[in-house]
Amino acid sequence: MIRILPDVLVNQIAAGEVVERPAAVVKELVENSLDAGARSIEIEVEQGGSALIRIRDDGRGISRDELPLALTRHATSKIAELDDLERVATLGFRGEALPSILSVSRLKLVSRSAEAAHAWEIGGAGDVEGAARPAAHPQGTSIEVRDLFFNTPARRKFLKSEATEFRQIQQAVSRLALSRFDVGWALRHNKRRVYEFVPAAGEEGRLARLREICGEEFLAQSVAMDESRLGMRLHGWVGLPSFARTQADLQYLYVNGRLVRDRLMGFALRRAFADVMHSTHYPAYVLYLEIDPAAVDVNVHPQKTEVRFRDATRVHDLLFAAVHQLLRRLRPEPEHHHQV
Ligand code: ADP
Ligand code: MG
């Protein structure tokens, strides 16, 4: 018998792709905060995220009548037509994260938009289907996710230790914090302060945050770069060959502010290091590629960490050439024998 699945089940299935672990929940919620124009984002986590994930932002907020919509599948304020998809400037656009998270947790959403006299809340003790209740909250949004996967025991069992899950969360927050130096961040785990970043104005603030996230050693053994060519800009920091890693654990690569894991880009960077680094080692970098949004497709995968370039060869060549030349310039000059 063929049946149409109920919404909750559809959302739970989608949750398998969008939010496979607590760190993915944090990433999705924080991306929403950034899309809402937040300048300050506080993240509170308990027990590696399986007990509680709470994100509080000072963004645009959600109006009372749109609260239920925010939790509805395929409901988004970010795109309206196919054309928009061709040049998405927001981190989200699928309208899948909140309904997916809602379907596998106990969720509470509190928000206050600029025009509202006070905040409104849904979920929590009450039902998300129920009416919104008045609440106290400054302009912005707080989302509380409790007991993640409580109703999907197979998924819950798949969670690793508290320490491992938190490490993933911290990694996710690190990636996001390095994508927006102008935003202030706080991360707490079991009430312990892990990160506290003020919005970084200027180079000094950026370096302080980079030091906190990537470590003193990376800072000491890396060089800044900023190259524009072929209508693209590549900037950031590249670890010196002497900072070779045995794991690919310090590789941050952003395309238009979105962290990506792109095979081709990773390959280009590895190749740039090939003459100066042993093939069993991995280069370290924090790099930002700015490119015409129309030249890149982000709608490839639900987690949106894969991208497709209209002209992949050009991107590959820029990355390879810029980093290769940088490394060459840094190498001690070979001895030349000049004729007098
Ligand atoms: P998407 O981000 O793909 O649009 P989501 O399910 O993540 O889908 O969010 C649905 C909608 O809820 C968003 O389009 C946005 O309008 C609203 N929303 C979610 N989180 C926030 C937030 N922190 N601040 C303001 N609006 C939000
Ligand atoms: Mg989203």
Report what the structure shows.
By secondary structure, the protein is of the alpha+beta class. The protein folds into 2 domains: 7-197, 2-Layer Sandwich (Heat Shock Protein 90), CATH 3.30.565.10; 215-330, Ribosomal Protein S5, domain 2 (2-Layer Sandwich). The chain contains 11 helices and 15 strands. It has helices at residues 7-18, 22-35, 67-70, 82-86, 97-103, 153-158, 162-179, 202-214, 216-220, 263-273, 312-330, and strands spanning 40-46, 52-57, 106-112, 119-123, 133-135, 140-146, 184-189, 192-197, 222-229, 232-239, 251-255, 258-259, 285-290, 296-297, 308-309. The strands form 3 sheets. Strands 5-4-3-6-2-1-7-8 form an 8-stranded mixed sheet, with helices on one face. It has a 5-stranded mixed sheet with strand order 9-10-13-11-12, sandwiched between helices. A hairpin with a 2-residue loop joins strand 9 (222-229) and strand 10. The protein starts with 6 loop residues before the first helix and ends in a 10-residue tail after the last helix. The model has no long low-confidence stretch (mean pLDDT 92). Bound molecules: adenosine-5'-diphosphate and magnesium ion (MG). Adenosine-5'-diphosphate (ADP) is lined by residues 28, 32-33, 36, 57, 59-62, 70, 76-78, 92-98, 141.
